[in-house]
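Support request, priority: normal
Reporter: lab tech (M.K.)
Component: structure prediction queue

Hi team, I submitted a job for Quinone oxidoreductase from Bradyrhizobium nanningense yesterday, and the status page still shows it as pending. I've pasted the exact input below so you can check whether something in the sequence is tripping the parser. The sequence length should be 322 residues. Please let me know if I need to resubmit or if it's stuck on your end.
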Amino acid sequence: MKAYVYGPDGARISDVAQPKPKGTQVLVKVRACGLNRADTGMRRGHAHGAAGGVGTVLGMEWAGEVAELGPDAKGVKIGDRIMGSGGAAFAEYTLADHGRLFHAPSNMNFEEAATLPVALATMHNAVVTIGGVQAGQSVLIQGASSGVGLMAMQIARLKGAKLVIGSSTDATRRGRLKDYGADLAVDSSDPKWVDEVLTATNGEGVDLIIDQVSGKVANQNLAATKVKGRIVNVGRLGGTHADFNFDLHAARRIDYVGVTFRTRTIEEVREIFEEVRKDIWGAVESRKLQLPIDKVFSFDDIDRAFEHMEANRHLGKIVVTV
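Reply from support: The job had stalled in the queue. We restarted it manually and it finished. Here are the results:
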């Protein structure tokens, strides 16, 4: 089968053996894949948790059909339209754990379905389970114009947040954040953004920050969070290391929590997917929660899809059809 593989000379489409499902695995006939920021690093040979390196089939988000079941797989049958996340997505076939997938709603095509699994699982966990957002609270999403950022704003709005703020350093994308739930859009590269947040919250700061940037905005986040507020760190687009004001962190008594799928067990991931199904799946089926598709590329043009992502001018998801 065709797959997009990282090799000694970089990533390219290659022929590899079709995988065989074992245990609770499902074999998926892939129809479409969503690109994610982590894919760009793995395309350069960087590790993502335990995954990566020479011989790795890239990709982590897909939609398609069940082609075969492992002996212990439950909850799906051959022919079901499904969407999910996991390694080796950029291929004609991939394997998925039966607890790390969703049934694709009948009112979505494969391209639309491929935009959702990572964003839904990541941001329901960050905003609701870990972030504990409550109706009437205020929320700031750092890096709001990414696919997961747009989903975070929508989930916060769905759960009753009274004020949703999104950040983007791009003026055009910042201007579109209100279409996806933002009451206020700020430029996190402008030092004045903290003052804008404090003005919007009557000087208190927000109840919750979902931070996909970290690095250079870490201390500004502390200043923009209210006393006894919460910061959930889900990314590091602003760098992996930075100065941190421990005194301000202590003075404001902020709960600062880091989350990632890279160190979660499959049991923990299954639980996250189940929470999405129980809590917000009706909003997915009704299309209340959805993501814009910026551009669709064919599998043969997957390198162009990555070039489009790396140009960093898109809003929403980039999709590759297989």
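Residues 69 and 245 are 51 Å apart (CA to CA). The chain has two domains: 2-115+291-321, 120-258. Let us know if anything else looks off. Ticket resolved.
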